[in-house]
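Session log. Operator J.P. requested a structure for one protein chain; no other inputs attached. Running the standard single-chain path with C-alpha cell output.
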Amino acid sequence: MSILTLRTAARALTVALIQPASAHCDTEDGPAVQDGRRALETGNPNYALKWVHSAGEEEVRAAFDAAQAARGGQDAAQAARAFLATLVRVHRAGEGAGFDGIQPTGTELPPEVVAADAALDAGTIEPLRGLIPDDRWGELEKRFTLALAKKRFEVDDLDAARDYVAAYVQFFKYAEGEDEHRHQGGHHGSHEHAVHQH
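Structure written below.
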C-alpha cells in the first residue's frame, strides 16, 4: 500500500471518527436548529435570525415570540417546535431550497459536510484533505479562510452574523462539489444530495 493511500485512509478514518458539532441546516444537530434552541434558551432571537435573510425575519420573529410566550405552558413544546421548523424553512427558502421537516439526529451526511464542519470547529482545513479533488483545493482554502475570518462576531450584530453565514454557505457549497454557477440553492443542495444519496 502506498504512502498516499495510507494517508488518504487515515484522513478518511479521522473524518469518520469526528462527531460534527454542527451538521446540516435541516437536521436536529444542524447549526440552524442548534442556534434556534440557543435563542429560546437565552431569549435572544438574534442567535437564530442570522440564518434568515431580512425579508424572512418578521415571520421568524413572530414564531419566536409565540414560543417565548408559551414557555411554561402546556403548548410550550409545540410552540418551540413550530419556531424551529419556521426558522429552518425560512432559511432554506432564502437559499432556494425546499423543506421537508427537521431531519432526526443521526441523519446520514456526506463526509464532506462532516469534514467541513469539523474544519471550521477546529480552525484547520485538514479534515477535508483527501476528500476534495486537487483542482478545487485552492478555491476551497480561500473560502475556508474567509468563513473562518468571519466566524467571530457579536451575536447582536446581525449584519456581521449574516455575513458569516453567507461565507459559511459558500464554503460548504464548494466543499460539496457545487458552486454558484451550477447551484443557486445554497448548501442545502447537499442535503438533497445526502437524502438523495446534506
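Operator note: Residues 6-23, 181-186, 189-198 have pLDDT under 50 and may be disordered.
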